[in-house]
């Protein structure tokens, strides 16, 4: 579904991505781990061109995103993204947060919007909060709503950038549960996270990034029990 070939990204003189060639298949759940500053967020952001690569290519369903003819906004609609900071619109209700994009981009009516919001909220167990404002929600609830908001555009793949890192510990579980449900339903997911339990339970593959490259990858089983690379061993010894 997504393929990168020799992907490079520089900020000024700093080389942040140093040649990443990787594929993500339909239905796969891939967890990306690695030290802070290794380029994980930049890599995710290059996948939907929130960052412009400085070399190499990104293909989405075999189409190069760097091709001038590509409607990048169309493609972005098919790639949901959830960040560490939930970025809900503070002045909008939960329902309006969820349906803002599909109303604007797909022309949903008010009735269709409410139906969609209820359906998604039921899925994350927050239907009773449909008329709440973000400041009336806990961090975990906000992040679940942010996920529902992404799902409202019916994306083909979901990108998560440390979705639980800004949460109080007691709220991490409820967000991971929503993500596990999504994985079970067959969603294609690329997840940057430090939650090794999540990786063990749901990842098909774990990639380890270091200094702008993917230095090792494998099933969670193999990665966590018998990593080969010394840098992988050093990183895992700190987080496992
Ligand atoms: P990670 O998510 O693994 O912590 P990032 O992708 O956020 O790593 O950052 C990798 C490196 O790129 C860091 O050194 C960071 O300072 C730098 N970087 C990220 N975004 C920008 C930017 N917009 N401008 C300049 N440097 C950036
Ligand atoms: Mg990051």
Automatic annotation (TrEMBL):
One of its GO terms (cellular component) is plasma membrane. Keywords: Amino-acid transport, ATP-binding, Cell membrane, Hydrolase, Membrane, Nucleotide-binding, Transport. GO terms for molecular function: ABC-type amino acid transporter activity; ATP binding; ATP hydrolysis activity. It is a peripheral membrane protein. This is Glutamine transport system ATP-binding protein. The keyword ATP-binding applies. CDD domains: ABC_HisP_GlnQ. InterPro entries: AAA+_ATPase, ABC_ATPase_HisP-typ, ABC_transporter-like_ATP-bd, ABC_transporter-like_CS, MetN_ABC_transporter-like, P-loop_NTPase. Belongs to the ABC transporter superfamily. Gene3D superfamilies: P-loop containing nucleotide triphosphate hydrolases. It is found in: Cell membrane. Its main location: membrane.
């Amino acid at each position: 579904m997504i393929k990168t070939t020799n992907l490079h990204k520089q900020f000024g003189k700093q080389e942040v991505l140093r040649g990443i060639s990787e594929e993500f298949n339909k239905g796969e759940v891939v967890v990306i781990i690695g030290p802070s500053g290794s380029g994980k967020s930049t890599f995710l952001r290059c996948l939907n061109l929130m960052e412009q690569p400085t070399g190499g290519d990104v293909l989405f369903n075999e189409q190069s995103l760097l091709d001038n003819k590509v409607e990048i906004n169309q493609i972005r609609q098919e790639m949901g993204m959830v960040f560490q900071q939930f970025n809900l619109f503070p002045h909008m209700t939960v329902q309006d947060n969820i349906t803002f994009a599909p109303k604007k981009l797909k022309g949903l009516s008010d009735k269709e919007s409410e139906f969609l919001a209820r359906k998604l909220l039921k899925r994350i167990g927050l239907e009773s909060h449909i008329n709440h404002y973000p400041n009336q929600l806990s961090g975990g609830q906000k992040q679940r709503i942010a996920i529902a908001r992404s799902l409202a555009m019916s994306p083909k793949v979901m990108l998560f950038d440390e979705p639980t890192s800004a949460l109080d510990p007691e709220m991490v579980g409820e967000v991971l549960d929503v993500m596990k449900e999504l994985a079970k339903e067959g969603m294609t997911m690329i997840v940057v996270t430090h939650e090794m339990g999540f990786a063990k339970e749901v990842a098909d593959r774990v990639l380890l990034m270091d200094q702008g490259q993917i230095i090792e990858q494998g099933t969670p089983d193999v990665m966590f029990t018998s990593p080969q690379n010394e840098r992988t061993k050093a990183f895992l010894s700190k987080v496992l």
